[in-house]
């Protein structure tokens, strides 16, 4: 048995290494596919030129410098069109790019916008796209080149309540990309007044809070209740004016401070030597970081970033750049190192994202978005700005450097005595630089920013692989196995689902099938590393065990159903046993649902995505039940049904489970053991199976099995399984017969009694 288990373990290691090798080949040997991200061509055919650049009648060939299409009226170029996702990172709430077509006139002014494709769940269902389109209209007429030249801040988009993150990402993508495209179209230069300033690492000295506040290294923005009410009154929104902020006009609303802590003197003063050294180890070459401190009744962080990963109340603007922070660039700071600093309710460290054009020594502006509820679901917004300029003691002016002739890029020198070593070093250097720099593909930058989450997921997959390979050892220890399974389901629900939002969906299956038929690109699927790794592991698991590892262990909504049912059982909620005849006719429903969705996706993927709302995953897992009431009611109804019928949705309605069950028939192993007595006469496993995957005659339906291993616990249980009970009774009988109390007596004595074995010795004593 040990040799067999060791052999299986070695096979598992082999297949795991093979899977990792295949994953690495996808990541590193398909760079051409991944980097082929220019998708402007496929969207230009879907719009009229005049819709993007008014007055144009057709588009010309793409420019060589970038994926930008000139818009022509006859033979005259009157503007340009481009796709935001080809120029900047536009990943939204879903983790996938938001594609927006933008039109610029020949002077670089934004004259047209059109949202052409997205995968934002909150916009696909629940909020009309017309509201999203209308929110972008304030960007029309903005010229990023002129704004940068005149020191003007970019316009604020009209926030749509309920889709704050999505709207901010779209607006951010339009503004940043417009600045870069205008920069390119004007020969790559932007006129600036005065000499270029740069950070002087040797400037300044470690001091205290009062010194930094006095010399401007720490800047303050104090907003009162009166300031907020006045700002909303000036906005002209009558609903916002009717709900003023309560309190005295002089009462503090928020007290905000900002400092450039990537400067050594400022950083060591506020973070201390240890904190600054840790920050330096996290920053790349030339990367900056700012510290934001806040106090008062209004939080500059809010709670939106917990759900969407993006801080929707703050942004940094500088010239044509608008910088928004994600949770991966954020670190919470408990206290400041300098003793004379005041106490703050919130202190947050933000690292400026790589790939943005940010000059830390030049003036930048911290924008604070203030929101006010004006209804059950609607909010109004206004903003306040805090300008920051690194003081002279910490910076220095640098005259423009003369242009040097372009030098040919030197080829790497290979050691002819050790070519393998040179190749290895080159590969290691490439891996170390994976996702670094502004020229790295979007998917690489996202993967590098989510190293911690990827590591946790890989550990989860490794633990699950160990559970399956050593299942015979675990299931013999019922309490230990049940605790391990409970802990795993909790991690799956809370971290994988509610925190990481890594919930697979049938939409992923439909999108993959559609991409195979049209313009398949790896970059689209690599954009979300957790989802990609999960799908890769599911594909590998289908070859070993079928759909069970995902459905039974890695599905957050499945975990939610099982955990709520366990709670219901503890509260003695009666359980409904569905008759086998009815159950057998209900479980094919999920296959019908999947086939309908797949058929619709062949003609309209967008409609199929909307119909896929039969999955409550977005509502319950991605959006945390923060959605329109009918979606919440549907999700809650399924969970309530699951209180009485365990995993009700998994059994009868889940199209994703049906999609995985079809290729799951190709699995190589069948490690679920059965006795000849299973089903005749014993039916305990069939009765206790949480999804009714065991037929009354005893065999397991692999299409329905979720690999919870409960039947294997019963298989080895010597107080529940009749076969094991008989074995235990025989074992106990043999042990009883071998007991000293059951040893034979000596022959009958002369008085007719049975004499003990020591009778002779007793007689001698007498």
TrEMBL record:
Protein name: FMN-binding protein
Keyword annotations: Cell membrane, Membrane, Transmembrane, Transmembrane helix
Pfam families with a match to the protein in the record: Fer4_5, FMN_bind
Superkingdom, natural source: Bacteria
Location(s), subcellular: Cell membrane
One annotated GO molecular function: DNA binding
Region named Disordered: 735-766
GO biological process: positive regulation of DNA-templated transcription
PROSITE patterns assigned to the protein according to its UniProt record, in alphabetical order: 4FE4S_FER_2
Database matches in SMART domains: FMN_bind (SM00900)
Cited InterPro entries: 4Fe4S_Fe-S-bd, FMN-bd, NosR, NosR_regulator
SUPFAM superfamilies, per database record: 4Fe-4S ferredoxins
Domain 4Fe-4S ferredoxin-type positions: 669-699
PANTHER family, sorted: ELECTRON TRANSPORT PROTEIN, ELECTRON TRANSPORT PROTEIN YCCM-RELATED
Transmembrane segments: 451-474, 486-504, 524-545, 591-608, 628-645
One cellular component (GO) term of this entry: plasma membrane
């Amino acid at each position: 048995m040990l040799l067999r288990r060791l052999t299986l373990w070695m096979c598992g290691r082999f297949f795991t290494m093979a899977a990792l090798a295949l994953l690495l080949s996808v990541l590193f040997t398909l760079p051409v596919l991944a980097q082929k991200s220019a998708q402007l061509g496929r969207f230009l055919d879907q719009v009229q030129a005049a819709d993007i650049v008014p007055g144009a009648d057709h588009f010309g060939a793409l420019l060589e410098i970038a994926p930008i299409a000139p818009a022509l009226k006859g033979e005259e170029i009157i503007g340009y069109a481009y796709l935001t996702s080809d120029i900047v990172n536009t990943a939204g709430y879903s983790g996938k790019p938001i594609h927006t077509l933008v039109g610029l006139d020949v002077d670089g002014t934004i004259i047209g916008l059109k949202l052409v494709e997205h995968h934002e769940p909150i916009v696909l269902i629940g909020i009309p796209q017309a509201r999203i389109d209308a929110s972008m209209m304030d960007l029309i007429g903005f010229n990023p080149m002129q704004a940068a030249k005149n020191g003007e801040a970019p316009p604020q988009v009209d926030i749509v309540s309920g889709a704050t993150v999505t709207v901010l990402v779209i607006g951010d993508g339009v503004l940043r990309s417009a600045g870069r495209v205008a920069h390119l179209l004007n020969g790559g230069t932007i006129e600036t007044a005065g000499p270029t300033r740069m950070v002087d690492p040797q400037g300044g000295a470690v001091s205290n809070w009062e010194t930094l506040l006095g010399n401007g290294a720490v800047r303050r923005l104090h907003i009162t209740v009166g300031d907020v009410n006045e700002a909303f009154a000036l906005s002209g929104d009558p609903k916002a004016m009717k709900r003023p902020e309560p309190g005295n006009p002089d009462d503090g609303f928020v007290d905000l401070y900002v400092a450039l802590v990537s400067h050594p003197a400022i950083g060591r003063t506020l973070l201390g030597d240890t904190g600054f050294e840790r920050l330096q180890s996290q920053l790349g070459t030339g990367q900056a970081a700012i510290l934001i401190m806040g106090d008062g009744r209004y939080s500059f962080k809010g709670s939106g970033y917990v759900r969407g990963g993006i801080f929707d109340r703050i942004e940094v603007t500088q010239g044509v750049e608008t910088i928004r922070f994600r949770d991966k660039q954020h670190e919470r700071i408990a206290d400041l190192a300098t003793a004379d600093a005041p106490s703050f309710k919130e202190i947050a460290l933000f690292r400026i994202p790589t790939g943005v054009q940010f000059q830390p020594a030049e003036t930048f502006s911290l924008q604070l978005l203030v929101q006010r509820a004006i209804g059950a679901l609607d909010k109004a917004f206004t903003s306040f700005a805090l300008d920051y300029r690194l003081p002279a003691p910490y910076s220095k002016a640098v005259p423009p450097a003369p242009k040097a002739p372009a030098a040919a890029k030197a080829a790497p020198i290979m050691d002819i005595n050790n070519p393998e070593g040179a190749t290895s070093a080159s590969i290691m250097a490439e891996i170390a630089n994976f996702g670094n720099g502004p020229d790295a593909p979007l998917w690489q930058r996202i993967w590098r920013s989510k190293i911690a989450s990827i590591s946790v997921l890989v550990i989860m997959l490794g633990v699950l692989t160990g559970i399956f390979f050593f299942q015979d050892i675990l299931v013999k220890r019922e309490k230990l196995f049940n605790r391990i399974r409970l802990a795993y389901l909790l991690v799956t629900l809370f971290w994988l689902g509610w925190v990481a939002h890594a919930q697979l969906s049938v939409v992923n299956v439909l999108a993959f099938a559609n991409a195979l038929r049209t313009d398949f690109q790896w970059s689209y699927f690599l954009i979300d590393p957790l989802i990609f790794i999960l799908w890769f592991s599911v594909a590998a698991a289908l070859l070993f065990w079928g759909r069970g590892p995902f459905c039974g262990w890695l599905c957050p909504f499945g975990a939610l159903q099982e955990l709520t049912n366990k709670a219901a059982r503890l509260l003695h909620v009666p359980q409904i046993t569905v008759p086998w005849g009815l159950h057998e006719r209900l479980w094919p429903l999920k296959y019908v649902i999947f086939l309908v969705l797949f058929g619709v996706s062949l003609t309209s993927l967008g409609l199929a995505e909307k119909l896929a709302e039969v999955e409550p995953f977005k509502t319950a897992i991605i959006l945390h039940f923060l959605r329109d009431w009918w979606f919440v009611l549907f999700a809650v109804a399924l969970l309530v049904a699951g209180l009485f019928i365990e995993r009700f949705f998994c059994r009868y309605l889940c199209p994703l489970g049906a999609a995985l069950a079809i290729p799951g028939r190709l699995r190589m192993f069948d490690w679920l053991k059965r006795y000849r007595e299973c089903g005749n006469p014993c039916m305990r496993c069939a009765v206790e199976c949480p999804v009714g995957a065991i037929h009354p005659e005893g065999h397991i339906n692999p299409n329905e099995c979720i690999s919870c291993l409960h039947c294997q616990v019963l298989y080895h249980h010597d107080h529940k399984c009749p076969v094991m009970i008989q074995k235990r009774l025989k074992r106990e009988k043999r042990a009883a017969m071998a007991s000293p109390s059951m040893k034979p007596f000596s022959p009958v004595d002369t008085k007719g009694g049975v004499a003990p074995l020591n009778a002779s010795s007793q007689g001698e004593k007498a």
